[in-house]
Amino acid sequence: MSAEVLCSNAFSRDKTEAGKKSNLLLTAMVYVEGYGRKKMFRALLDTASQVNLMTTERANVLKLGKEKANAPVSGINGTVRTIKSKLHAIISNSENNFKEEIEFLVVSNITDRTPSKTLDITNLELPQNVKLADKEFFKPGKVQLLLGIEPFFKILKCNKIKINDSLTLQDTVFGYVISGKLLSSQPLNRCFSTNELSNLEKIVENFWKLESVEEIPNRKSEDELFCETIF
Question: What Gene3D superfamilies is this protein classified in (predicted)?
């Protein structure tokens, strides 16, 4: 029985000239285990997505067994595309003190390189002993996983550090992720998730007020899959 997957996230085209600020997407380096092998993948953390995604190429690297799926996915323009494969894999962190089995829909591509241009971190001063979830968050790189809202609240930790009026560090089991805006060193033209960044602090505050996280309904949503169709 198939479950309709609805896109719940808002997208925007962010065309930024060099020297202007660009929104950061939350990225983390995540270990994925399969058949005795363990590889590190770059993941996009999306608090508005109700599904998790993995690229076909990464699934093949770990030789993860795929299952048949029939998940219609609605993109931002209403276009519906059916995802035919899914798999289960265990994600973990470098300290190996966090492990979680996740169901992923398997797609050929999740989004374009993120960020699309190198961001300027010349004047970025981070607190000492802060471990970043993605040390190269400012460099364009492939996104190989998308972790949606359900695993997001499982990886979230309570510590938060405000760097300045534009940037905030949020602790996770993978290290600190950075939300906010940075100057772009080159002209930037990309598609990004506005909900993920503008509402992050509100989502985190609400999370810590709750005693438990609601069970994710069977109706699932997907957001990044059709980003590439805009370009």
Answer: Acid Proteases
Q: What is the third-level CATH fold of 22-183?
A: Cathepsin D, subunit A; domain 1 (2.40.70)
Instruction: For residues 64 and 35, give the distance between their C-alpha atoms in angstroms, rounded to a whole number.
Output: 7
- DSSP label at residue 219: S
98 backbone dihedrals φ, ψ, rounded to 5°: -135, 125
Q: Residues spanned by CATH 2.40.70.10 within the chain?
A: 22-183
Question: 135-189 pLDDT, tens per residue?
Answer: 999 999 999 999 999 999 999 999 999 998 889 999 999 999 999 988 766 554 4
Q: What count of residues does the chain have?
A: 231
Q: Is 128 exposed, middle or buried (0-12, 13-18, 19+ CB in 10 A)?
A: exposed
DSSP-derived letter for residue 214 is P
DSSP per residue, 87-150: EEEEEE-TTS--EEEEEEEEES---S-BSSS-B--TT--PPTTPPBS-TTTTS-B---EEE-HH
pLDDT in tens, 25-48: 999 999 999 877 899 999 999 988
Q: What are phi and psi of 152, to 5 degrees?
A: -55, -45
Q: Is the Cβ–Cβ distance between 148 and 84 less than 8 Å?
A: no
Token pair 């067994």: residue: 65
Closest of 56, 41, 134, 46 to residue 91, by C-alpha: 41
C-alpha gyration radius of the chain = 17
The distance from CA 205 to its chain's CA centroid, rounded to whole angstroms, is: 19
